[in-house]
Amino acid sequence: MINDRGSIKWSSLMLPEHVEMLRELWQEDTHQTMPIIDEQKAEEMNAVIQKAYKEKILVRITYYATPRFHTVLGCISNIDILNSCLTVDVDKEGSKTLSYRQLLDIQME
Length: 109
Description:
- The protein is α+β, with helices and mostly antiparallel strands.
- It is elongated.
- Strands 4-3-2-1-5 form a five-stranded antiparallel β-sheet, with helices on one face.
- It has two helices and five strands; from the N terminus they run H-H-E-E-E-E-E.
- The protein has a domain of 70 residues: SH3 type barrels (Roll), CATH 2.30.30.
- Pfam families: YolD (PF08863).
- InterPro entries: YolD.
């Protein structure tokens, strides 16, 4: 197996602008795009949201916040239909408000 240090060995020969551009390129590689949620998935998530809210069940929510996916574990404390968002009580972070458009998946724990 080849033990290569990648671009580190060439960094002394690169201009600072080149190093900065490489760092930006590496960060862009980790960016994820928002997938499109179909109607059936949206209905399933809505049913889970309603049940978890009524019965105060712990849920794991996967959501998209630019530029990547995030996961939060908590209990749904509020559903705001007018603003299309819900509030999740998280132990360490307090509460987190998420828009319906950000939601990718919801699972009951």
